[in-house]
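Let us practice reading a record.
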Amino acid sequence: MEEHADSAFSLLKSISSLIGMTPEDKADYALLLAEAADKNGYSLLPCDSLLNLALHVYHEEAKEHAIALLYKGKVQQEMENYADALKSYRMALEILSAYPCEFYWKGFVYNMLGGLYGKQNLYAQAKDMYVKACYNDSLARHNRHFISSLSNLGVAYIGYGNIDSAFICQQRALQLSLSTDSFLLHSLYGNIGDLCGRTGRTSIAITCLKRAYDACRLREDSLQCLWNLGEFYYNNGQLDSALYYLNRSKEAVDIHIRYLSFFDLYAIAKQQGNVEKALEYLEISTELEDSIYSTNVATELEKKTYRWNADAQVRKEQFKAKRRIYTIAMIAVVLLLVIVIIYQQILKNKKI
């Protein structure tokens, strides 16, 4: 799973039907599918119903129940149900506290909590969570997770206002990173470039941003690095260099990067007095903005659909539970009546 997450995900998705599986097998399948989807960076929304099944099957104190809660929390966070996500993560940690050696999963949960707090601009809490994530990742000896947690800690320090500590975290993470891990190098160089830009170290920032692009040159998101460079040059008044990178990043597959690239090109053309080009870029960026809005509306509807389905599933389970209780009560009443009738018949027979 760790080394071949894409193959594992494809294999798991190839299982077209779960008919014939026991509930325990379905629960195990749910965790494997969620883990594979997460490692590949895919949405966990399609795993929601299976994770609900896993939470129902696994014992509430089992490690697997905690893992299911972790991934359920990620689903809730993706749906922007932050309070529910926080509750799921906290419950997962409570269960894992009974498993002293499960450092990997504890580090994972703390990392997610740090991200959740950071998203709410609660940087002090985020910092505390990332520190605990680093501690558990180091005990688990999971280098990639430790580097990720350390880098995230650096980002939290930026929000916390401690730039020096942020630099230390990012530089240490870079020292520990594997040269073959393009995603980590891309992220780390990008973070350090951003820090250098914030502190006026322009030449170092440019070097780091270029290395971030080199690290992910073969990845689909490599053009985002080119936009980062173009944006950096534009903000520093180097328009020729900005145009060079923005004209390349405008070909990105990601519609958001295309929009940002064309909008910056519009701003530069306007600044240079090229009205015709400025209007052309403005028209394109407006069309892209409309497309992004439509996509966001569709995504929001998708999230609401999953939320409604989840609520409907809860109501369905509650109805089933009430029906079971009603059925049991009716059976008990019938049995009681039968016993009373039999007892009365016995008394009559004795009198005779």
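A brief commentary: The CA atoms of residues 114 and 128 lie 8 Å apart.
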